[in-house]
């Protein structure tokens, strides 16, 4: 869905350094609300760094990042539902108690939706987090992010650890539980082929630089290829 509204996310000449390591360089881009945006690129290219800057978990070394027209600070984390690549729950809690804990921390957390999502994803509220398989940990993190009525949901590798047979149904559940009239989803992934049908726009990052920002429609029309083909052409400098 395309909106002419003001951008929900803008990067203006953003750089991020970790000591001497330049993880991102001169990134400028504006993203419209109401879309599903994929961030793709090879390992270590800067995808997680970009997502953490949006979520207010990192501050830029140069330039500025705006969310909803406001400069991102640590407080932005309250308005952005972030699914990190690490686990984010207490191992000794069961899932129901974790849901209650989240409801206490985040004002926008919808407990009823969380329980519905647990059911959709085949998870039991009485299960203990420490006994979850890797795949179920991945599902539970998705539940915790989607249960927030946040205008911006940011997911770092939501499909990692999930086997190829269930990825498609998880992708469909993610779409079914988003409200694109009110929400925007940004996700990073290596499963480019699998997420292609769900994306409106793609950002391609290589070696800390933004090498492309196009709608999936433009890519199909102008490059006559799918995302993986486009990514290869771009990275080969064509
Ligand atoms: N806290 C940190 N301290 C030092 N270097 C870091 C830190 N976080 C990231 N980096 C470096 O910044 C670069 C970009 O890392 P980032 O995690 O953003 O890449 P990525 O595209 O998400 O990688 P992957 O696909 O492997 O998850 C890498 O070289 C990484 O080693």
From TrEMBL:
<dbReference type="InterPro" id="IPR027417">
    <property type="entry name" value="P-loop_NTPase"/>
</dbReference>
<dbReference type="GO" id="GO:0005524">
    <property type="term" value="F:ATP binding"/>
</dbReference>
<keyword id="KW-0813">Transport</keyword>
<keyword id="KW-0547">Nucleotide-binding</keyword>
<dbReference type="GO" id="GO:0016887">
    <property type="term" value="F:ATP hydrolysis activity"/>
</dbReference>
<keyword id="KW-0067">ATP-binding</keyword>
<feature type="domain" description="ABC transporter">
    <location>
        <begin position="9"/>
        <end position="232"/>
    </location>
</feature>
<protein>
    <submittedName>
        <fullName>ABC transporter related protein</fullName>
    </submittedName>
</protein>
<dbReference type="InterPro" id="IPR003439">
    <property type="entry name" value="ABC_transporter-like_ATP-bd"/>
</dbReference>
<dbReference type="InterPro" id="IPR003593">
    <property type="entry name" value="AAA+_ATPase"/>
</dbReference>
<dbReference type="Pfam" id="PF00005">
    <property type="entry name" value="ABC_tran"/>
</dbReference>
<dbReference type="InterPro" id="IPR051782">
    <property type="entry name" value="ABC_Transporter_VariousFunc"/>
</dbReference>
């Amino acid at each position: 869905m395309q909106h002419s509204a003001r951008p929900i996310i803008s990067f203006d000449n953003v750089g991020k350094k970790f000591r001497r390591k330049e993880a991102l360089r001169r990134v400028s881009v504006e993203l419209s609300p109401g879309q599903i945006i994929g961030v793709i690129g090879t390992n270590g290219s800067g995808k997680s760094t970009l997502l953490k800057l949006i979520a207010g978990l990192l501050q830029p070394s140069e330039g500025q990042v705006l969310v909803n027209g406001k400069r991102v600070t640590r407080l932005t984390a309250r308005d952005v539902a972030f699914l990190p690549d690490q686990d984010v729950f207490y191992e000794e809690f069961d899932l129901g108690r974790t849901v209650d804990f989240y409801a206490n921390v985040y004002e926008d957390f919808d407990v009823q939706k969380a329980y519905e999502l647990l059911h959709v994803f085949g998870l039991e509220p009485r299960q203990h987090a420490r006994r979850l398989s890797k795949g179920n940990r991945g599902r539970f993190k998705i539940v915790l992010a989607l249960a927030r009525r946040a205008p911006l949901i940011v997911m770092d590798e939501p499909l990692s650890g999930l086997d190829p047979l269930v990825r498609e149904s998880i992708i469909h559940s993610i779409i079914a539980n988003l409200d694109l009239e009110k929400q925007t989803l940004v996700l990073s992934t290596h499963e480019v082929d699998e997420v292609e049908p769900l994306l409106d726009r793609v950002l391609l990052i290589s070696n800390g630089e933004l090498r492309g920002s196009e709608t999936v429609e433009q890519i199909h029309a102008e490059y006559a290829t799918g995302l993986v083909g486009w990514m290869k052409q771009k990275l080969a400098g064509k």
